[in-house]
Design brief:
Length: 273
């Protein structure tokens, strides 16, 4: 085994006929390798054993990109790291295994959400309309909290309501929560502490037709306490939180009402003419 030197690297031996490469092992630093290809390219590697005594190998660089001295110095550093229980090749493999945002959302998140979330179509829209172009090619572990804050500002400047901006943030948070749960990457959720923007409540009043349908359904509701409470709220325009209003000397409290069943009973009892 020869010593790997600058002279050897710049004037390497020929690759044996019929072979694609020739590997030379340094006689001073165990595991330091110089590889010569038939094209004349020289590349340096380090071979070592990890904590489980498995043989691993990591590429240090190509001659021209790094010098022989730099390759040797880097090999010494990585060998010392491996001796202390580290695994440089394993760290490299883990980084390479981290999916991009687009890969994870398309191949794992959306198929999972399709069978479980009513808001699946919205999530598809969030991803395809804006997030795929913005973050699609970035590995999950490279998206930072500032990126999420910048996204919220961008959406706001584009004219989206605070409610929609908040839904985007909630979508991003859910994507990263699942990625962490499934160990797709190591780190933190960049949207964990995203600031949710103040939403402006909207009021909507029932039409005359809707009010008529409501009172007909309440007439047939078996839970009379709940029916009376809802009728009172509808008649007075009080808010739902006002169901605890004073009625004489008694306090009226609304009981839960199954709206779907209430509507079905109304339709059955009062069919359209």
């Amino acid at each position: 085994m020869p010593a790997i030197t600058r002279g050897l690297a710049t004037n390497p031996p020929a690759v044996p006929e019929g072979k694609a490469k020739l590997r030379l092992f340094d006689d001073k630093l165990t595991g330091f390798i110089m590889e010569v290809r038939t094209s004349g390219t020289v590349t340096f590697y380090l071979r070592y054993s990890d904590a489980r005594n498995r043989q691993r190998e990591i590429r240090l660089g190509k001659l021209g990109d790094i010098t022989v001295e730099q390759a040797r110095r880097r090999a010494q550093e990585l060998r010392a790291e491996a001796s202390l229980g580290g695994d440089p090749a394993g760290d490299r493999d883990r980084l390479r295994a981290v999916p991009t945002f687009a890969d994870f959302v398309e191949t794992r998140y959306l198929p999972f959400a399709k069978e479980r979330l009513r808001s699946y179509a919205d999530h598809v829209g969030f991803f395809r309309l804006r997030l795929k172009a913005l973050w699609g090619s970035r590995p999950l572990d490279e998206i930072r909290p500032q990126d999420v804050a910048d996204l919220q500002d961008r959406l706001h400047r584009a004219g989206l309501t605070n409610a929609t901006v908040n839904r985007y943030a909630a979508f991003v948070r859910r994507v990263f929560n699942l990625a962490l749960r499934w160990e797709a990457y190591e780190g933190r959720n960049p949207a964990q502490h995203a600031e949710m923007r103040r939403e402006h409540s909207r009021e909507r009043f029932l039409t005359e037709t809707e009010l008529r349908a409501l009172f007909m359904a309440l007439r047939d509701e078996p839970n009379k306490s709940a029916a009376h409470a809802l009728a009172l709220l509808a008649a007075t325009g009080a808010r739902r939180g006002g169901a605890g209003c004073q009625v004489g000397a008694h306090r009226l409290r609304a009981a839960p009402v199954d709206g779907a069943n209430l509507q079905e009973r109304s339709a059955a009892a009062h069919p359209a003419v």
